[in-house]
Amino acid sequence: MKISVFPHVKKPKQIHEYDVTFEQLHIFISKHREKRNKIDMTAWSPTIFRPLHRLTENATYMFCLVLDIDQKSKELNDPKYIEHAKQVGHIDNTYSIIESELNRMQIQAIMHTSYSNTKELNKFRIIFPLEKPIPANDETWKPIYRAAVEWLHSTFGEGLTDKSTCDPARAYYTTPTLEDSRASRIDGQYIDWIGKGDEYKERERIEQEKKRAEVQNRLAIRKSHTDNIDAKRHVTFSDHRRYMYDLLKYDRDARTSLAHKLGAKIVGNRAERWTCPACLRNDATYFYIEPNSATSLFCGHVQSCGDKKSPRYFTPGYIAEFYGFL
């Protein structure tokens, strides 16, 4: 297998590429390291890049699947919980439980604690080798990653990791050697992640088709209502407005047209860089052309425009009306 190593993650063109065995990767992961600021720790990636520049569009092949176990439950990550756990001497055994179960299931993996791990709240990574390298594109990689997260949660419990963090160009920091640091290698069999990804993709296709049929039915009902409201009165502006709000929410062509009217840049399934009516910036705005992904329009300035937890969002009908497109 191949890995990419970054002496400094903020210098994405400084890449050292190595051919390693899974045992050698374990040695690299578990190597003694002095504690420094996280940003100054060596980082690595299971992805190779062409050209040698760590960008998503340069990601070519991946040789391992890495799951970040952050346990992002609000309760667990609340400072009050951590302080209480310290006071009562609570020790989190999540790492040990998963390590023991992977051994029992005889699944080949490397586990190691991450930079922010503590006794009270385990944070770590599980690295699964892939039987063969896979293309690092969305069509291949995302279903495999999301299937892996589903498998993890169904096997060990919900809330361990996040299904959305699947950038193939992501780099992983190595960990300093501290009192609570751990690294383990588990011998066993490969998991057929490619097969699980294909199954996930088929389930998603069936679900998308079902949603698409529901959307078309909803629009047909709205249009019929608008075309001839009980044959008793003419269509009012309010009727037309409700229809257009639904159309922009659920119709792909209408959303594409809105993107063009807003002067957005369309990248794959996303329309980006339209002007947010709240903060008047366009560098973090986006929405999905395919309504089955999400119907709202988003401004990604979470701290200054959102609620400091999630992006500000708008209905497409509101945006169209705000900018005079209805």
What is the compact description of this entry?
The protein has nine helices and 14 strands.
Any descriptors?
326 residues; 5-stranded antiparallel beta sheet; 9 helices; 37% helix; alpha+beta; elongated; single chain
Structure description:
By secondary structure, the protein is an alpha+beta fold. The protein is built from nine helices and 14 strands. The chain has helices at 22-30, 74-77, 79-88, 94-105, 138-156, 193-227, 237-250, 252-262, 316-322; strands spanning 2-6, 16-19, 43-45, 47-49, 59-69, 109-113, 124-135, 172-173, 183-186, 265-267, 270-272, 285-288, 297-299, 312-314. The strands form three sheets. A five-stranded antiparallel beta sheet has the order 4-5-7-6-9, with helices on both faces. The longest helix has 35 residues, at 193-227. It starts with a strand and ends with a helix. The model has no long low-confidence stretch (mean pLDDT 89).
Task: Give the helix/strand layout.
Blueprint: E1 2-6, E2 16-19, H1 22-30, E3 43-45, E4 47-49, E5 59-69, H2 74-77, H3 79-88, H4 94-105, E6 109-113, E7 124-135, H5 138-156, E8 172-173, E9 183-186, H6 193-227, H7 237-250, H8 252-262, E10 265-267, E11 270-272, E12 285-288, E13 297-299, E14 312-314, H9 316-322
Antiparallel strand pairs: 1-2, 1-3, 3-8, 4-5, 5-7, 6-7, 6-9, 10-11, 11-12, 12-13, 13-14
Largest sheet: 5 strands, antiparallel
Overall mean pLDDT = 89
**What percentage of the residues does DSSP assign to strands (E)?**
15-25%
Sum up the overall morphology in one term. elongated
**Spans of at least 5 consecutive residues with low confidence:** none
Number of helical regions:
9
Number of strands: 14
Provide the spatial order of strands within the biggest beta sheet.
4-5-7-6-9
How many angstroms separate the termini? 55 Å
The whole-angstrom Rg is: 24 Å
Helix content: 25-40%
- What pattern of helices and strands is seen along the backbone? EEHEEEHHHEEHEEHHHEEEEEH
Structural class by sheet pairing and helices: alpha+beta
